[in-house]
Amino acid sequence: MQTAYFDYAATTPVDPVVAEKMIQYLMPDGCFANPASRAHMPGWFAEQAVEEARLKIAKALNCDARELVWTSGATESNNLALKGVAETRRQRGRHIITSAIEHKAVLDTCGWLETQGYDVTYLKPDQKGVITAEQVADAITDQTILASFMMVNNELGSINDIAAIGDVLKARDIVFHVDAAQAGGKLPIDLKALPVDLMSFSGHKVYGPKGIGTLYVRRDPDLKVAAQIHGGGHERGMRSGTLPTHQIVGMAEAFTLATQRMEQDKQHISVLREQLWLGISSLPDVTINGDADGYPGIINLCFSGVDGEALLMAIKDIAVSTGSACNSASVDPSYVLSGIGLPREKALSSLRFSLGRFTTESEVEQAIDIVVKAVTALRGQ
């Protein structure tokens, strides 16, 4: 039996259209040159491809292409945003606000900043996994220089009201960073309208290649981001390193395709999520963790009375997870589930199912059949 993939929140397969585009920038007869090599025509063509890709993503996000900085992924984008702003604004204050259920790329970075003398407030979300603008307003002090919140939670699918939070921060001249790794290409994002200063994106979460991402840095003379990687002064001095043309072109193609297919993909995923939930909810004592009305591609389920790790072993023909891929080796309950107040026993009985563009009805039926049988057996019913 072929494994049915339900871990799209961890990573997505590269869309064949994207892969075909990338091949043109890899082979000897393609545009493989270093885009920083301006002494010859192959380098010019590579640089042109990089800048055209930047324009494509800027169009998808409605921002200026000059506001996009290439990185190796959302993790690096988050690090660059938080460390880069903390460094340039430390004379104004050393207080940062975030939430207790952010991705580790934000939480670990904030933890490191604490060792450098910064104070971090970790807001507790509600049971749905949402942070409110009122919570943010109450946490602000005269030392607050930066706030960071994700748009879509990677374990729950809950969606924060980025516009409302941004309005609160903008009124106080506090830099606002958003981790949009799970939102890019899936939810409408208009960076000209949103009160956001920095936003992180990943290629491999939107049917593009791994190892590439971008950081949106709003054009503002007062917004400075200190480089964290040095060596050549690429990307307007914010991020040095040879640009991977094929990955950049792939990410741009993936974002363009995702923008064109956004409603189509959302409808497809919503129908399959409903099918999955209706089938699995035939079991007793199964509940949805977090926000049932969040992003439809992520559904976190608690199977009361069943150990999540044991269930994973029993449903090995389905690719699912107990939480973020960054913590998949941990035997502790998901810090995200604990963060929304779920008791330890229930957190350890939970699995995340995430669906995507290539999920099929037959895979959903396969998952329902396997999960229902496995849970029934583990409960001894």
UniProtKB/TrEMBL annotation:
EC number from the UniProt entry: 2.8.1.7
Cofactor(s) recorded in Swiss-Prot or TrEMBL: pyridoxal 5'-phosphate
Record's keyword terms, sorted: 2Fe-2S, Iron, Iron-sulfur, Metal-binding, Pyridoxal phosphate, Transferase
Enzyme class: transferase
GO molecular function: 2 iron, 2 sulfur cluster binding; cysteine desulfurase activity; metal ion binding
Keyword Transferase: yes
Signal peptide: none
Catalytic reaction(s) noted: (sulfur carrier)-H + L-cysteine = (sulfur carrier)-SH + L-alanine
Domain (Aminotransferase class V) ranges: 5-366
PANTHER family xref list: CYSTEINE DESULFURASE, CYSTEINE DESULFURYLASE FAMILY MEMBER
Family named by the database record: Belongs to the class-V pyridoxal-phosphate-dependent aminotransferase family. NifS/IscS subfamily.
Protein name: cysteine desulfurase
The organism of origin for this protein: Oceanospirillum sediminis
